[in-house]
Automatic annotation (TrEMBL), chain A:
GO molecular function: 4 iron, 4 sulfur cluster binding; DNA binding; metal ion binding
Residue span(s) of domain DNA primase large subunit C-terminal: 269-442
Cofactor: [4Fe-4S] cluster
Family per similarity comment: Belongs to the eukaryotic-type primase large subunit family.
Keyword DNA-binding: yes
InterPro entries in alphabetical order: DNA_primase_C (IPR058560), DNA_primase_lsu_euk (IPR016558), DNA_primase_lsu_euk/arc (IPR007238)
Coiled-coil zones: none
Protein name: DNA primase large subunit
From TrEMBL, chain B:
Superkingdom as given in the UniProt entry: Eukaryota
Any one Gene Ontology molecular-function term assigned to this protein's record: metal ion binding
Family from the record: Belongs to the eukaryotic-type primase small subunit family.
Coiled-coil region: none
SUPFAM superfamilies cross-referenced by the UniProt entry: Prim-pol domain (SSF56747)
Cofactor(s) the protein needs: Mg(2+); Mn(2+)
Protein name, UniProt field: DNA primase
A Pfam family that the UniProt record links to this protein: DNA_primase_S
EC supergroup of this enzyme: transferase
GO BP, sorted A to Z: DNA replication, synthesis of primer
GO cellular component, one term: alpha DNA polymerase:primase complex
Organism encoding this protein: Spirodela intermedia (Intermediate duckweed)
EC number: 2.7.7.-
């Protein structure tokens, strides 16, 4: 992609002949104004962030489909119809640059772009779906009649098992099972002798796999180019934009909490009682239970050594979080099991020596999406507990009857993080505008709320405390019925006064961190820049 | 009910020598461990003279040893059979684990640190099934213990998995191994299986997963939708149903007393049905003196009640109960990642002294973990042999292992697993080689 500060020389040629959905196989040679470089990317980022939030709320596929098309419609439009396609392509390639730089960024981007692609593909008509399959050079031929007759019993059985209508004239493709891992994982296809029989309405999965592996490779390549040349060549122009966009977005990392409220180990019970989210509490209680079993085998050893060591020193919040981080990482309690897991993690350390093992705590999204095995205690309680158990657990946390119903309502609609947020609000009596995205966030918000209660401050969480907090939702995609996210709009409007005056209209409704991007004083935007190109 | 929970090895007659001893292990590795077969297997045909052979293949395989005192050495590799054999004999590991084949020689990984050059490139698709994961459905033993009443759970697991791996996924080189104490390992060694990515491995592992349960969840298995996937139907009809009804129900006395049948009734979501059945069973306690087994009789009643129920959700319940109790419980994390380690076959389990011998999936019903040779038995056999040899001085076979009870397991490993595997490896090598030749010829022609 060629980028020039101004004087756009060409727009995409022949926009009408291109299908609406791009495969982003190669960067177009377009000239892009620097402002658009940035603005398009931010618009796309809002789409991706919206998707990420939707996923973390456990939205069902049909809800996601609605969400994605709405996000796309709102953010990716352009007054010039010819520009729509360009905006799509440009923003994609800019974000590729932004998100190519570390493993975590690549992973996030890959997963969000793939999700976006999947839903956009599903919205295409079957004609253009076939066209896209051809574009990918997918060598699949529909199943012949004779072959179909041989397996039609099983095919219709699979269709019934996933609640899809099975009609005899629907088309099937016979592919290696390796090519449709997600259909295999969910048993949505019939598999025989190494082949998966993919129905026409499932081809999204095939195409998405291709898209994903293509993008994954491309990101690795872009990363290499970025590291070897682009970063230095562009250090006065694009590099600041690119670096600001991803780092300011991800924001403070709850794996390294900065505020160190001192909690000594003797207080940990009390803190657990008042400030732990349900998932942590459950682990903690289970831990204590097994901990008391003196003959609890490997578990006892592993847990107590972790638990007791800091006791002499006094456990700082950091320690507590570190402790929980480890719990989430490898304490799937169960005595024999722990033994095994623990041994594995040591080996893991061994293997990664010099590379550092990643103990980043799991975010809510990760916890919700992980399915615990038999007898495991981790996982999101709102998702995994039976209703009865959940009610009992919430009652123990001090959630009253009326908020309880609201929580259960969210649980039934699979809005697990909202359920957790409501629990927070019920327990602390304050609102939680940011929503809960991370167990550690819950913990620090709770600590903050309780401190300000002590200080007598009125409503800490709606004031400056959370502003600039990264986990603040972009406020898109959620119907206003979800109370906490509604209030956010008001708060943002207050930000208007603090944001960059020149760009006020443009930036006013954006969350605070974007003002970072808006302050482009660092970047020379003088006319001397015209004509400088980057090849992405 | 009292059930003898003493571990099976204590029932063995000759317990004069203890099951496991580090010194015995030296003799075992020196005389019995099939070094050459393990090398052949891990080479996958690349140790031959064929020009398509990748001579570096075996040397990139990770071995890891657990020594005495739980000292763990990872990322070892050996360039040839002799080197491997010597290292094993010298270090005398309590446990040998096999890892992945990496892009570069594992001990040299530090030279490539940081740029992702050191990555696993091939790995058998492995499964680990552990009896301790079944503790909530077996009443005879718990934890590390197994007996002839609960071992059939493993047999059922092998049957379900083996059939699916062959029929559904089309794999043919599958090795089942007794893990030495309370479980089984499965090695799928087809080229396609070895080259699966982590994502594809996870997909296969998830295909096999029906447990969505949680300790606090009401149900461990839940089937929705009007039909089951053909794989589940086949597993149910061919293996699980009959295993549950004919084997597990009576042997574990699943419906014999209130505590046990309550566990099953808990799996039924309809209160009125369960209370009706509970009342019936509670009052019938004395009258059920018929010759028919009480478990079977009650199961028939339960099935009838559920299947004749007007509530749609309840009809699936019979299947759900059977799956909850009998379906294979995989330690799924082991299968999901290429770089996970798994204990090599023919190791000796340090706690039981039993050798991790292969299991024939076609005859897995006959397998009895209590009859697997232990280290001390094998050494006893070697000693007896020496005595016989001293007495008769007649020519005995050169290979000592052929005179021990380990012989038939090594023979089985060779004839049923290794030979067919190497044959197809050879074909694959030759196939890719001639394809490459053809390609280069074509390009030359132009």
């Amino acid at each position: 992609m060629e980028i020039v500060r101004s004087n756009r020389k060409s727009t995409a040629a022949a926009a009408d002949s291109v299908p609406a959905l791009s495969l982003y196989r190669s960067a177009p040679s377009l000239e892009v104004r620097l402002e658009e470089f940035e603005l398009y990317a931010i618009d796309r980022l809002r789409v991706l962030k919206g998707i990420s939030d939707g996923l973390s709320r456990g939205k069902k596929p049909d809800e996601m489909e609605k969400l994605v098309s709405e996000l796309w419609r709102v953010n990716m439009r352009h007054q010039d119809a010819n520009e729509v396609m360009n905006k799509d392509i440009i923003s994609h390639f800019v974000l590729r640059l932004v998100y190519c730089r570390t493993e975590d960024l690549r992973k996030w981007f890959l997963s969000m772009e793939t999700t976006l692609f999947r839903y956009r593909f599903r919205l295409e008509g079957s004609e253009s779906q076939r066209a896209l399959m051809t574009d990918f050079n997918l060598p699949y031929k529909p199943l012949s009649h004779a072959e179909y007759e041989g397996v039609k019993e099983e095919l219709s059985q699979v269709a019934r098992s996933i609640g899809l209508p099975h009609n005899a004239d629907s088309m099937f493709f016979k592919v290696h099972f390796e090519e449709v891992p997600e259909l295999v994982a969910t048993r949505k296809v019939f598999i025989h002798k190494g082949y998966a029989y993919v129905a026409m309405n499932q081809v999204a999965s095939l195409v998405v796999t291709q898209f994903r592996s293509h993008l994954s490779r491309a990101l690795a390549l872009t990363n290499r180019k970025w590291m070897s040349s682009i970063r230095d060549q562009e250090k006065d122009r694009l590099t600041p934009i690119v670096e600001a966009m991803s780092s300011s977005y991800l924001g403070p990392d709850y794996s390294q909490p900065k505020e160190s409220t001192e909690i000594s180990l003797k207080d940990i019970d009390q803190v657990a009682n008042s400030s732990f989210p349900l998932c942590m509490r459950h682990l903690f209680e289970k831990l204590r239970e097994t901990h008391h079993l003196k003959h609890g085998g490997g578990c006892n050893w592993g847990c107590s050594s972790r638990c007791r060591n800091p006791s002499g020193v006094g456990l700082s919040l950091d320690d507590a979080l570190a402790f929980w981080r480890r719990m989430f990482f490898d304490c799937q309690v169960g005595s024999e099991r722990f033994d095994k897991e623990y041994a594995y993690s040591i080996r893991h350390n061994y293997g990664k020596e010099g590379k550092r093992t990643d103990y980043t705590p799991y975010s809510c999204q990760k916890i919700i999406s992980s399915t615990p095995g038999t007898g495991d205690h981790h996982g999101c309680p709102y998702r995994n507990f039976s209703e009865e158990n959940l009610r009992a657990a919430l009652r123990r946390m001090g959630v009253g009857e009326r908020p309880m119903e609201e929580v259960m309502e969210r649980v039934r609609n699979r809005h697990y993080q909202l359920a957790c947020t409501l629990t927070f609000e019920a327990v602390h009596g304050t609102s939680c505008d940011s929503g809960v995205n991370h167990p550690n966030q819950y913990l620090s918000l709770s600590q903050r709320a309780m401190q300000s209660k002590v200080r007598g401050s009125s409503c800490p969480l709606t004031n400056s405390a959370v502003i600039g907090d990264p986990c603040v939702d972009l406020g898109i995609g959620d119907p206003p019925t979800h109370l906490p996210f509604c209030r956010m709009g008001n708060r943002r409007r207050r930000d208007k006064t603090t944001s960059d005056g020149r760009q006020m209209d443009r930036w006013a409704h954006l969350p605070p961190f974007l003002s970072l991007v808006g302050s482009r004083k660092k970047m020379p935007l003088t006319s001397g820049d015209v004509g400088r190109r980057v090849n992405v | 009910m009292e059930i003898d929970v003493c571990p099976p090895e204590q029932r063995q007659p000759n317990m004069s020598i203890e099951g496991f001893h580090a010194d015995y292990l030296k003799v075992f590795y020196g005389k019995l461990f099939p070094h050459a077969d393990i090398f052949k297997w891990m080479s996958y045909g690349n140790d031959g003279k064929h020009p398509a052979c990748d001579q570096s293949y075996f040397g990139r395989r990770e071995f890891s040893f657990t020594l005495d005192n739980d000292i763990y050495i990872r990322f070892q590799s050996f360039s040839n059979a002799t080197e491997m054999e010597n290292a094993i004999k010298e270090k005398c590991p309590f446990k040998i684990d096999l890892g992945a084949v990496y892009s570069v020689d594992p001990p040299k990984r530090h030279a490539y640190a940081g740029n992702n050059v050191f990555t696993p490139v091939e790995r058998e698709l492995v499964f680990d099934i552990d009896m301790s994961d079944y503790d909530d459905v077996r009443h005879c033993c718990s934890g590390a213990d197994v007996c002839s009443d609960c071992w059939p759970l493993m047999t059922a697991a092998i049957k379900v998995m083996d059939t699916a791996l062959r029929d559904d996924f089309g794999f043919s080189h599958i090795l089942w191994v007794f893990s030495g104490r309370r479980g089984v390992h499965c090695w799928v060694c087809d080229g396609r299986a070895r080259r699966l990515s982590d994502e594809q491995r996870s997909a296969v592992a998830d295909y096999f997963r029906v447990y969505k349960g949680h300790e606090n969840g009401l149900k461990k298995v839940s089937f929705v939708g009007p039909a089951l996937h053909p794989f589940l139907v086949r597993s149910y009809n061919d293996v699980l149903k009959s295993f549950f009804e004919e084997d597990m129900l009576p042997s574990q006395s699943l419906l014999a007393n209130e505590a046990r049948y309550q566990k099953i009734l808990d799996l039924i979501p309809d209160e009125s049905t369960t209370s009706e059945i509970r009342d019936k069973w509670n009052s019938n306690r004395r009258s059920s003196i018929s010759k028919e087994d009480v478990n079977t009789a009650r199961w028939e009643q339960l099935k009838h009640a559920l299947q004749s129920s007007k509530q749609k959700g309840l009809r699936r319940c019979v299947e759900e109960i059977v799956f909850s109790y009998t379906y294979p419980r995989l330690d799924i994390e082991v299968s999901k990642r290429m770089n996970h380690l798994l204990k090599a076959p023919f190791c000796v389990h340090p706690k039981t002294g039993r050798v991790c011998v292969p299991i024939d999936p076609r005859r897995c019903d006959e397998f009895d973990p209590g009859k697997v040779p232990t280290l001390s038995e094998l050494l006893g056999e070697l000693n007896d042999m020496d005595r016989v040899r001293a007495d008769s001085s007649s020519g005995l076979p050169a290979e000592e292992w052929e005179r021990t009870s380990l012989c038939r397991y090594i023979r089985f490993f060779r004839s049923s697993f290794l030979q067919p595997l190497l044959k197809s490896c050879k074909e694959e090598l030759e196939g890719t080689y001639s394809a490459k030749l053809r390609q280069s010829k074509d390009s030359l022609g132009w």
